[in-house]
Amino acid sequence: MELNLFTRVTTEPDLLQGKPAYRSELGAAYQGDSRELLSQLPDGSVSLVMTSPPFALQRQKEYGNKSQDEYVEWLSDFAKIVRQKLKDDGSFVLDLGGSYEKGSPARSLYNFRVLLKFCDELGFVLAEDFYWHNPSKLPSPIEWVNKRKIRVKDSINTVWWFGKTAWPKSDIKKVLVPYSDRMLKLLDDPDKFYKPKERPSGHDIGKGFAKDNGGAIPPNLLQIPNSESNGAYVSGCKLVNADQHPARFPAKLPEFFIRMLTEPGDLVVDIFAGSNTTGFVAETEGRRWLAFEERLDYLAASVFRFMSKGDDPDQMRAAYQAVLDGETVNLGNFGMHPHLVYQPILGASATD
Ligand SMILES: C[S@@+](CC[C@H](N)C(=O)[O-])C[C@H]1O[C@@H](n2cnc3c(N)ncnc32)[C@H](O)[C@@H]1O
Q1: CB-CB contact of 54 with 274 (8 Å)
Q2: What domain range includes position 210?
Q3: Ligand 1 pocket check: which of 224, 227, 293, 304 to mutate, most ligand atoms within 8 Å of Cβ?
């Protein structure tokens, strides 16, 4: 049975067997093991796999983590299928949090082992290494940081951007950031501002730098606080008394890569979808999307991302319950308000 909240659904005929938990105008969310779901997609059909797997943390999270020993092998099983399904110019973006060895203040190398394995053995190419700085991260692990005070807080995730080849589709013009005040002054009056001098790097900053390209080139350090309000998602979870997903990434993270690496109409897939941040951002950016998540309760709550705080609570409850009951919810354009307005990721400067 399908629950139609809106009938205007323009999703293409399903690429997958089985029915989705819900579908929107541009995408669909499926419950199941993503290895099986991914295998059903046509080879070479996906432009971007953007995901954040369960990390190899020592402290078991609610949804279960693999031990560090098995982790690389486990993740490789998914990555092999991802590579098959990517277009030749497709990208695989993997967000991995840092970790310590069990009972020791020695850092785990698992995220680097993943990187090496994927490139040395699975045929991926590292297009660029990114670092996501989350300034709102709480200090941890408590033992090394708060109690013994021998390690600083770890507020960086490594985000590996893999290509199937060295030439994944990419356009950094879509992710330019606002110019610094210094650069704005230079653009305003190059003659007044320009003082010829060679930088320590050997780059001669000439007047050619005073060209307005519409924004500065962002660095590979993405500074994004993980403190978004997640308005409708959080209020929806409260409405039905559901737990919020414990390890969501901020919408700005998938937004950056979706904008840079895909075009409207391209297919974006998240193979560890959780609360479906990726699918929601893909929808707002006009990309087709698929979300795979093994826990139905996480998917049920994720329908709230596609709603707004002011939506009819009865309809919100009905959509949530229908997913839990195994029905397919057609969200259509239910409550889709493009409230993800692009904001700068960093106050970076083109002259710095
Ligand atoms: C770190 S969370 C992803 C959170 C997501 N980025 C968000 O913003 O909500 C990882 C998710 O992967 C799911 N997962 C783990 N193994 C899976 C599998 N084999 N197939 C599908 N999902 C899986 C977990 O249930 C968990 O929700």
Answers
A1: no
A2: 178-216
A3: 293
- Are residues 138 and 64 part of one domain? yes
Atom of ligand 1 nearest to the CA of 245: 9
Indicate which residue's Cα is closest to atom 27 of ligand 1. 274
Does 52 contact ligand 1 (Cβ within 6 A)? Answer: yes
Rounded Cα distance, 237 and 141, in Å: 28
Taking the C-alpha atoms of residue 109 and residue 66, their distance in angstroms, rounded to an integer, is 15
Indicate which CATH number applies to the domain containing 258.
3.40.50.150
* 199 alpha carbon – ligand 1 mean position (Å): 46
Same domain, 156 and 183: no
Pair of tokens at residue 296? 């139905």
Q: Whose CA is nearest to atom 26 of ligand 1?
A: 274
- From 282, 298, 314, the end of a domain falls on 298
pLDDT in tens, 65-115: 456 768 899 999 999 999 999 999 999 999 999 988 888 899 989 999 999
- Of 340, 85, 314, the C-alpha closest to 229 is 340
Within 8 A by CB and 6+ apart from 243, the residues are 62, 237, 297, 301
Judgement on whether residues 161 and 65 belong to the same structural domain of the protein: yes
Task: Give tens-digit pLDDT for 148-190.
Answer: 999 999 999 999 999 999 999 999 999 998 888 777 777 777 7
